[in-house]
Amino acid sequence: MGRYPNIAASKQKNGAAKGKIYSMYAREIYQAAKMGGTSTDANASLKRLVDKAKKEQVPADIIKRAIDKVNSGADESYENTKYEVFGPAGSTLIIDCLTDNLNRTVSDIRAVINKTHTKLGAINSVSYMYDNVCVVGFKGLSEDEALEALIEAGVDIDDIENEDGTILIYGQPTALYDIKTAIEKKLPNVEFDIDEITWIAKEKIDLSEEDKETFNKLLTMLDTVEDVQRVYHNVNL
Questions:
Q1: Range of the domain at 55
Q2: pLDDT band at 17 (very low <50, low <70, confident <90, very high)
Q3: Number of structural domains found in the chain
Q4: What are all long-range contacts of 8-12, with beta carbons under 8 Å and residues at least 24 apart?
Q5: 116, 222 in Cβ contact below 8 A?
Q6: Is the pLDDT of residue 9 over 80?
């Protein structure tokens, strides 16, 4: 079993309501446009986010408003911040947030921690047990054909695997654009089913039913925190 599908399944199970997803993408698109310009042709990060938002059925007017906000001169300031958490029975979590108010964010995260009797860790107390990688997943090439495309383009990767017909390529976060470009050159109409910069636990664990209940409560509560963008963890669900 590939490393990524477990993460994808847990994220899907922990999927927020549509309103939360729309808000998440609106912030990310605004931030990407503010940092790199409002043209998707010239700003690869913005193009990637817009494509992902469309795939998740974020309405076009929400995407447009986020970009137009930059063109209109609005100056909102968002900051990426990461929290590392020790959950029940050896479980760990990395919580990615995008916020315009750090005090509010840490207060909301601490409230969840207190209610679930879990523990907020120091910086790098959890993340060293994870790999920070990009993952690209698609169909239409064999593993050998994908490798050939990457070699021809001079792109270094960490790993490649075939998961039920889906080719999964793992690389350093900075290699995401180069990996996708190499595959697009080989397979021009490719659709990327997975296109992520993510944290993948080096070791996964199983929880008892009681601990799993506590863990799921933790995930559900984190879903309600406005500034939480994504949650990564080491639990088989």
A1: 3-71
A2: low
A3: 3
A4: 8/194, 9/237, 10/219, 10/233, 10/235, 10/237, 11/230, 11/231
A5: no
A6: no
